Amino acid sequence: MIREAPVKAVVVGAGPVGAIHARALAAHDSVELVAVCGRTAAKTEALAARHGARPHLSIHGMLERELPDLVCVATGNRDHPGPVMAALEAGADVFVEKPMAWRLDEARAMVEAARSKGAALGVNFNHRFSDPYLRALDYADGEGLGTLAYAAMKFAGDLYKELDDPYCQLIETQGHSFDLLRLFCGDIAEVSAFLADPRGIGVYTSAAINMRFESGAVGALLGSWDGSYATSSSQVLEVAGTEGRIVVEDVIDSVRIFEAGRGDYREWRPGIFDAQGRDFWRTIDRHLHAFIDALLEGRKPPVTAEDGLRALEATYAAIRSFEQGQPITPGGA
Questions:
Q1: What is the pTM of this model?
Q2: Cα–chain-centroid distance for residue 328?
Q3: Which domain holds residue 68?
C-alpha cells in the first residue's frame, strides 16, 4: 500500500522514547502529527502540546477519533502487542519499538495481523542507521569481505532497573545484536548458549552464545548487563571474510575497514561538528524517516516485522539452548 502525503501520525507512549518518535514525526515534511496517547495525563498533555497535537488517554478512543495512517508504539516493552494489534485492526501502518513483543506467540500474531491487513509493520532496530553501520554495510554489500568466515559481537552495558524475568537481559537488549548479526551474515541456523547470574539475583545478566549461519559462517555473541555504557567498546561488531574485515565500535563512534594483504586500514568517525552523527538517539529519527519514506514510495519497511520476529526467535533459541543444554535451531515454539 502506498500512503499519500500528508501521513496522519500518532504516538502511543509519552515517555522519553515516545518523545523522540514525536520529534521525528514532527520534523518530516510529509507527516502531520495529530495526537499523542499515554497513560499519565500530565505527561501526555505536555508532549502533545509541544507539537500542537491532541492528547488522548485511550488507544481505542484515539484510533476512533483520529483515524491515523501511522501509529508509532513506544510503550513499555511488555505492552507493545495491545496497541499494535489495535492499530493494525484499525487499518493503520505501525512502527514499534524493539523487542516487538516479549513472547514469541505475541510477535507471530502481530506479523500475521500485518500480513492479513496488508499493512506495513516496522520494528525499531535503530542501530542499523548509525553512520558507522551504514558505511560498514555498504562495504559488505559491495563484496569487499569476500566469502563470510565469522562474526563476533559484544554488547555489554549497565544493569537495568527492571529485573522481572530471568532472561530479560537477552530479550530487552540482545535483539539488537541478533539483528545486526543477521544483517551482515544472514539467517542463523543454530545457536548454543551459556548464561551466567553472577549476582545471584535470579536474572542471567551475562550470556555467551555461539552460532552457525546458513551461509556456513560462524559467530559469537557476548551480551551482558555486567559492563558499562560509560566506557568505550561497550558494543563492538567484527565481521570477517576471506578478502576483508570490518569493525564497528559503539554504534556511532567508528568503523574500521581492513583489506586482505594490506598492513593498514581505513577508519571513519563522525567529525567534531557532526552533532547529529554523534547523537545515538538520532538514529531513531533516521530510521523512522526511512520507514515513512518507504510508506510513501510503496516499498517494504527497512526493518520488517519478519526481521523483528527472527531476532526474537534467535533470542528464544538461545534461552532453550541454555535450558536444554544443546544447540537449537531458531524458529521453534
A1: 0.96
A2: 23
A3: 7-126+283-302
